[in-house]
Amino acid sequence: MSGTFSVGFIGVGMMGAPMVACLAAAGWPVRIHDPRAEALAPFAGRRGVTLAGSLAEAAAGAGLVITMLPDGKIVRAAVLGPDGLAGAMAPGAVLADMSTSYPLETTALAGDLAGTGIHLVDAPVSGGVRRAERGQLTIMAGGEGPAIERIEPALAALGTVYRTGALGSGHAMKLLNNYLSASGLAAACEAVLIGRRFGLDPDLMADVFNVSTGRNNATEVKLKQQVNSSRYAAGFTMELMSKDLRMAHALAGDMAVEAAGLAACAELYARAVAELGGKADHTEVMKVIAGDG
């Protein structure tokens, strides 16, 4: 399928790179920008992908600009800063923040864009690198219906779109999803540690969990594959998980919800960053739980 508009893509990291590849493979012309030359290098000469030397160059003339950046503050700087995206985007274009950003920062950014004619959509993703490579991400899209409808054909090259409601709702959904993911992993690691010390086989435990009521994402794709094997290479860093949990806990506070479980989970992963370093894989939380950090 040929795209009906060009796509600017900002942030070609671990997740952004396969997303760009999927857009190009589906026929959408993509102009990409990243301050790191090494991130852009693999796309040099790639059919359907143009390397942009600046944010403004990536955004100029694009019907859709996607940001895939570490957090909302960096997104804000990219959009509103000198030579930023907002100054180059045409009225009527859609800006889709597919980063994991704080929902209230997203709504504040929309206020700053008021009067520019730029339509802001928050559309964070879940699924990890492997599903990004296959174009099978879960996309949580918040914002005005017509704006989402316009860009949905392009987003379909990346995965399945779920409309979550008003602007900011996609980012809220993503934070809460990552809380469940992080807490499920922590609980699975604790269960394996207890069982192992009792004498149970950790892989057998995973098999039993996965046909029982304790089954979750961690038991299915992380226990045997990453934790029990000590491989610890799921592809999502501890600092990113800790950052998402901090934002989820802040959102709970803003919504006047005590969320003791979320507070404990956020503290655990913050301790893991302190003990193991931010670049550790998030599955290495088992080391902290076991006292091996």
Concise structural overview:
The chain is α/β, with parallel strands linked by helices. The chain is about 50% helix and about 15% strand. It has two domains: about 5-165, Rossmann fold (3-Layer(aba) Sandwich), CATH 3.40.50; about 170-290, N-(1-d-carboxylethyl)-l-norvaline Dehydrogenase, domain 2.
Instruction: Write the CATH homologous superfamily of the largest domain.
Output: NAD(P)-binding Rossmann-like Domain
Helix-strand string: EHEHEHEHHEHEEHEHEHHHHHHH
Percentage of residues in DSSP E strands: 5-15%
Largest sheet: 6 strands, parallel
Might you state the CATH topology name of the largest domain?
Answer: Rossmann fold
Instruction: Please give the domain count.
Output: 2
Helix tally equals 15
Helix content: 40-55%
Number of strands: 9
Low-confidence stretches: none
Query: How are strands sequenced across the largest beta sheet?
Result: 3-2-1-4-5-6
Q: Your description of this structure?
A:
This protein has 293 residues and is α/β, with parallel strands linked by helices. The protein folds into 2 domains: 7-166, 3-Layer(aba) Sandwich (Rossmann fold), CATH 3.40.50.720; 172-289, Orthogonal Bundle (N-(1-d-carboxylethyl)-l-norvaline Dehydrogenase, domain 2), CATH 1.10.1040.10. The protein is 51% helix and 13% strand. It is globular, with a radius of gyration of 20 Å. The mean pLDDT is 96.
